[in-house]
Structure formats: C-alpha cells, structure tokens
Backbone:
C-alpha cells in the first residue's frame, strides 16, 4: 500500500488527489511542518531535503510532487489520468507538468518563501513583488491557452496536469490578483475542484 507523507495544503495536494482519482488504497502520514516535523531525523531518511510530499511504495521511496504524480499515473493507466505514450496529448501533458513544476511552482516558492532567496527584509519584499508580477503573466498566458483550447489543459480531456494546475492556483489565493481572477483559469480550477476525488482530498487534508 502506498504511503503519502503530507502537510495540509502543501505540494502533496496533487499526488493526493491523483491517489483519490485512482481509487487505490493508501495511507496518509502527517508531517506537520509548523512543528518542524519535516526536519526530524526519521523524516530526513525519507526526504533528504526535508520537504513534503514523499511517497513510499514498498521498497521505493521518492519525492518531488510532479514526479510522484507521473509515477502514480503510469502505474495506474486504467485511471485514465495520463494520455498514452507516443500520442501528441502525452507530449503536451508532459510539457504542462514540467512547466507547472519548474516555472510556475518555482515562482510561487519565491512568493511564499522569499527568505530562501534573499538575505534581508527589503530584498525579500522585492523578490516577492517580482514573483507576483511573473506569476500574473503566467496566469494570463494560461488564460489564453484555456480560452482557445480548454476547458482543461489538454482541451476536452481532463488529466493529472489539471490536478497540478489547480493545486498551484490555490497557492495564489492571498495574492493581490489570484490566479482565479482569470476567467478560464477559474473555470478549469472549478471543474477540477468539483470532482469528488478532489473534494475527498481537500476534506482529508482539512482544507477548503
Ligand atoms: N519541488 C518540491 C517542493 C516541495 C516543497 O517545497 N514543499 C514545501 C511545502 S509546499 C515544504 O516542504 N516546505 C517546508 C519548508 O520549506 O521548510 C515538490 O514539488 O515536491
């Protein structure tokens, strides 16, 4: 049985929602980052960089939320969360997941953790402001893509990329201009949030 190490609302949301979509048995293990449990010696054996999430599958121990999502979807093709290999949809699915984690999630890290990137308060404020400007351009770009060929990132077809996308939109909710200000971004996120599996994930993590 899978074990997913999580902290409510963190990068585990997408892998957790994928597990719910798949419908396979799994165990959730809370790592309370406010209590700094991610820095414990025991957890560092699972995630050497002290982050959440991590996944354990038998002898396999892995981290990085996007990699976990890709792994789970490939292990459970019957769930239909990923297009088949060798299809143009598969290429786009990989493109979006890589872009979401490398670029959008990275900019979100600048906003949420400016302390990782700058030594003092004034430079942290500048890092945060620039991240918000960059993110606004990114959501604007997604809005155009989804307007032209939505409602999902792969058009009419829902995929795990939409789970990752929706997770990231939530992390903008306290920004001056949240991602869901953009109509087509909001429509995609609303469709995903209405899915029973996504709702079960939110409920299990105790978030709204
Ligand atoms: N790229 C990693 C990022 C993981 C990450 O930074 N997780 C945050 C929560 S969203 C975390 O563990 N933060 C704890 C800390 O920064 O001390 C992934 O997607 O798994």
Residues:
């Amino acid at each position: 049985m899978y074990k997913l190490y999580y902290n409510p609302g963190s990068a585990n949301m997408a892998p957790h929602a994928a597990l719910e979509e798949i419908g396979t048995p799994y165990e959730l293990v809370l790592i309370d980052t406010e209590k700094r449990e991610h820095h414990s010696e025991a957890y560092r054996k699972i995630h050497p960089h002290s982050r959440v999430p991590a996944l354990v599958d038998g002898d396999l121990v892995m981290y990085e939320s996007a990699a976990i999502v890709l792994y789970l979807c490939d292990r459970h093709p019957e769930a239909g969360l990923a297009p088949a290999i060798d299809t143009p949809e598969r290429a786009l699915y990989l493109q979006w997941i890589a872009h979401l984690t490398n670029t959008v999630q990275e900019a979100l890290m600048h906003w949420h953790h400016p302390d990782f990137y700058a030594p003092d308060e004034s430079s942290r404020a500048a890092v945060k402001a620039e991240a918000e400007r960059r993110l606004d351009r990114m959501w604007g770009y997604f809005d155009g893509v989804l307007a032209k060929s939505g409602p999902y990132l792969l058009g009419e077809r829902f995929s795990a990329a939409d789970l990752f996308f929706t997770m990231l939109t939530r992390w903008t909710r306290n920004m001056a201009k949240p991602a869901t200000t953009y109509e087509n971004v909001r429509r995609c996120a609303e469709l995903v949030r209405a899915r029973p599996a996504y709702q079960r994930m939110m409920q299990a993590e105790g978030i709204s």
Notes: Residues 23 and 79 are 8 Å apart (CA to CA). Residues 10-11, 33, 38, 51-53, 63-65, 101 surround glutathione (CB under 6 Å).
